[in-house]
Design brief:
Blueprint: H1 2-17, H2 23-42, H3 56-81, H4 95-99, H5 107-140, H6 149-154, H7 170-173, H8 177-186, E1 189-192, H9 210-218, H10 226-236, E2 241-245, H11 251-269, E3 280-283, H12 287-306, E4 314-317, H13 323-331, E5 336-339, H14 341-349, E6 360-364, H15 366-371, H16 375-383, E7 390-395, H17 400-406, E8 414-418, E9 428-434, H18 440-447, E10 455-458, H19 462-474, E11 479-482, H20 488-499, E12 505-508, E13 523-526, H21 533-540, E14 550-556, H22 562-574, H23 581-584, H24 616-641
Parallel strand pairs: 2-7, 2-8, 3-5, 3-6, 4-5, 6-7, 9-14, 10-12, 10-13, 11-12, 13-14
Antiparallel strand pairs: 1-8
Length: 642
């Protein structure tokens, strides 16, 4: 007790000796000890999960320092891996900037960003669409080249086109490229190929003899059309060519005038003897077109002969005519032959025609011949040639599929295109009317009042042609009719009577729609919409020819296929024609797909209202092929069982 009291006395003496200014430390000391003891008592100092409170501003500052260190570390790693590349130092963000709130994105900016993303997705859809179409085109592409069997077997490949003696005038040959392009742009001429001859704007500069110029003037032709401006120089120089132009643009002269000049040159160098020839051959799909081409060649040949030039002989080889007369003409020796595929194959098989000296081949309406099933005949015709020939293909409707297929037969081809392949003539006013099936025949009489004669009426079926013809005759209309079941004499008589103006109306199937030239026709009536838009283009092309304006009236109703009506709608839109409400109401899914890629519309049939993935023509062809395969397998199995 005595010791404890002594300790207390010493403690009070120490307290009395401290000054007032030391009281702060005295007060803080016991307080700190008290807090530490409380922490030890509560066990907080040993708890690892305890996190002292840090103000928000301090936390942001630490987070920024942490990110800055991380960015500096990454920059150092990049500079180590690629020392030659300069790495910019990380941008130091101030504390005030970091503490500021991120600005809100406006709704307009969000809409723009979403639109960009949607367009990117749409582009991927386009890519998928194009890839799918490429696969379809590849699957239907012809694996066998359009060449002679002997040339394929021997591996014969011609690399240079045929040389001719014709050259353009020197000032045209040395014309600057800029001027050449201006001329083509002015005439809306599109060309493809290597070393394309320059365009020539007059027949005189093309070096045709005076009798030819006089014969052209007699027909009312004084200036060449766009296809002739570029096509004639290409053909006269010996180049293989694909010529595409709307109906009535003068394609016939592009291949008939050169074949006459080449034959004349051969006759002057060495006259043709018996059983010799032909030097040039023109193959067309129909008899009427063959006769028309034959008459054009005969017109110019007689003009040359009348002015003292050698006589040129041309033979017309078509079905329905005497094969003996055609054989006798071949024995006398001919310079040129105009033929249809069926009769030509017959004459080649019988060795009545030989192509030993033939160097010039024209396939007029080439795509139509292939579509009509003459492809194998064309391949066989190529096999009868003994050496290289100049090959020309012409049509108003030639989709890319046919062009690519045809190029396998050509040597460094020149493609001359005036307008889009399959486009309708802009000189034709197209009118589409909704007429019920039972009212069509009666409404014809009203339509005939639109324009004076002559008028051309097209129908899909032969029976409809006969019914329309009979009805018009009963109503007192001077009319004639042609179709495939009529004899050749009846067809020739009908065309002649109509052409000479003795009859006012010609009723026909599509045999009269391919290439026939009726320069005075002002009105074409489509009694029914054809199943193929290409036939529609050929039909209405019988009017509005040689720069004249014509009218085309087409009847449609519920019996028409919607796919064809969509093609018709977009064809009218392309030609800036009036679209009737019944067509305007038709819509197609994903309409924006119709114009993507290099080819507008369908690459198989040329229709503008669909793509090749929805092509009804291709679908029908594939269904037919599948049916034939099944039928062949069935017949083969049946014959094996028997």
């Amino acid at each position: 007790m005595r010791c404890f009291g002594k300790k207390l006395d010493e403690y009070f003496l120490i307290l009395l000796s401290w000054s007032p200014r030391d009281m702060s430390s005295l007060s803080s000391y016991p307080k700190k000890r008290r807090i530490d003891k409380e922490e030890e008592r509560d066990g907080l100092s040993s708890d690892e999960d305890y996190t002292p409170y840090v103000p928000l501003k301090e936390r942001k500052r630490r987070e920024l320092e942490k990110r800055e260190k991380l960015l500096n570390r990454k920059g150092a790693a990049i500079s180590t891996s690629t020392p030659e590349r300069e790495v910019k130092p990380a941008k130091v963000i101030s504390e005030d900037t970091a503490s500021a709130s991120v600005p809100n994105v406006s709704l307009l900016d969000q809409h723009t960003e979403l639109k960009k993303k949607a367009e990117a997705v749409k582009e991927t859809h386009y890519d998928k669409q194009l890839k799918e179409e490429e696969k379809i085109l590849e699957s239907i592409a012809e694996r066998q080249a359009l060449m002679a069997v002997g040339e394929i077997a021997k591996g014969i490949v011609y690399t240079d086109p045929i040389k001719t003696s014709w050259t353009p005038p020197r000032y045209i040959l040395h014309m600057p490229k800029e001027k050449i392009e201006r001329i083509r742009k002015k005439w809306h001429i599109l060309v493809e190929g290597d070393d394309i001859p320059p365009p020539v704007k007059t027949f005189k500069e093309m070096k045709f003899p005076r009798p030819i110029l006089a014969a052209l003037k007699k027909k009312g032709i004084t200036h060449p059309t766009p296809i002739q401006v570029q096509g004639l120089p290409a053909v006269l120089t010996g180049r293989d060519m694909i010529g595409i132009a709307f109906t009535g643009s003068g394609k016939t002269l592009v291949f008939t005038l050169p074949i006459i000049m080449f034959s004349l040159e051969q006759e002057k160098a060495m006259p043709f003897q018996r059983n010799e020839g032909p030097y040039g051959m023109i193959v067309v799909p129909s008899r009427e077109l063959a006769r028309q081409t034959f008459e054009v060649i005969t017109h110019f040949s007689r003009a040359l002969e009348a002015h003292g030039f050698p006589s040129l002989r041309t033979n017309l080889c078509i079905g329905g005519s005497s094969i003996k007369e055609q054989s006798d003409a071949m024995k006398r020796g001919v310079h040129m032959v105009v033929a249809t595929p069926g009769r030509l194959m017959d004459l080649l098989d019988k060795r009545i025609i030989t192509l030993d000296v033939c160097r010039y081949l024209v396939l007029d309406e080439a795509d139509r011949m292939i579509d009509m099933g003459f492809e194998e005949d064309v391949r066989t015709i190529f096999s009868y040639f003994k050496s290289q020939r100049q090959t020309l293909l012409f049509s108003a409707t030639m989709p890319k599929k046919i062009q690519n297929f045809a190029k396998s037969a050509l040597v460094k081809p020149v493609t001359v295109n005036v307008g889009r392949a399959g486009a309708a003539s802009l000189d034709v006013i197209q009118e589409v009317e909704y007429v019920k099936q039972e009212a069509k025949v009666v409404y014809l009489l009203e339509c005939l009042q639109k324009t004076p004669p002559p008028v051309l009426i097209f129908a899909e079926k032969k029976s409809d042609v006969d019914d329309i013809h009979e009805y018009l005759l009963l109503k007192g209309v001077e009319a004639v009719a042609i179709h495939g079941d009529k004899s050749q004499e009846e067809r020739v008589h009908a065309i002649r009577e109509f052409h000479q103006g003795n009859k006012d109306v010609l009723v026909a199937t599509d045999v009269a729609s391919k290439g026939l030239d009726f320069p005075d026709i002002q009105h074409v009536i489509n009694f029914d919409m054809p199943e193929d838009i290409e036939n529609y283009v050929h039909r209405i092309g019988r009017t509005g020819r040689c720069g004249k304006t014509g009218v085309a009236t087409t009847f449609i109703n519920k019996s028409c296929e919607e796919s064809v009506l969509l093609d018709l709608k977009h064809l009218l839109m392309e030609a800036k024609q009036k679209i009737p409400p019944v067509l305007a109401a038709l819509q197609v899914d994903n309409e924006e797909y119709l114009g993507i890629g290099d080819e507008r519309g369908c690459a198989y049939c040329g229709g503008l209202g669909h793509r090749i993935t929805e092509c009804p023509k291709l679908e029908a062809l594939q269904s037919k092929q599948a049916g034939n395969i099944g039928r062949r397998d069935y017949l083969a199995a049946g014959s094996a069982d028997w």
